[in-house]
Amino acid sequence: MEQPSAVERAKAVIAPYLDRPGMLGAFLTGGAARPFGDALSDLDIICVYEDEAYAAVEKDKRVVAHYEGEGASRRKIYDFLQLSKSRIEEQLESKLDHLRWGFQHGIVLHDPTGWLTRAVHAAAQLPDDIREARVRAHCYEYLWAEYRAERASKRPHVAFMAGALRSTGLIGLCKALLCAAGIWPSKLQWLTHELAILGAPAELVSELEHAFGHLDTHNEKVRPLAFEWLASKGYSFQFDSTAVAIWGVGSPDGIDAIETWVRTH
What SS3 class is residue 95? Predict the structure, then answer.
């Protein structure tokens, strides 16, 4: 017997809530809403209310997690989160990835007024000024981490940290690539999956995944492949690492971008 789709299962969860006063709509996010979701992906369901109606929702019922099974086989089936309209509007202005990327693949389940569909679409957009600043900032992050990883690998007393530094750099590079492609960077486990569905070359995705899985060694193929893909998006600054460093530590825009989005230490 064919199993219900994620959307069908999510609609069944929200069905008892649709007639509640002030209920604006609901949407599905999380792994189950994404093209790369799998059998382990639970449903992340968000219902949105007018502010006054939300205030009336009992606090212990605003977030509900449903599990099935016992012991080692126990798994989460869905998270059901109830939010206010004001909270969604705040997220529309946020610069935090985890508050924006979730809208990227959001599937609207119920929207009688059309407001929620517009809000989900708006929240998923990466503004041009943020995109430009972040592509540069995350390239700085990548280059700086690679430099530090190389130096750490030659120092016996800190060589064990070289892999952690490479990981930091690769994460930064993936974020630069995702921003260049026009989306908010995803959760870490989905970085390369997002790049793949955005059309990044298969060789680039493969080498990135190999690099993440082999942090004990430097992958020489990643940088040229990544920088060439950035070039295909219209960027050229990445080929001058000195200029990237000067921008990052010597210009107001660079300093602000790095303080906002980059972890360099």
Answer: coil
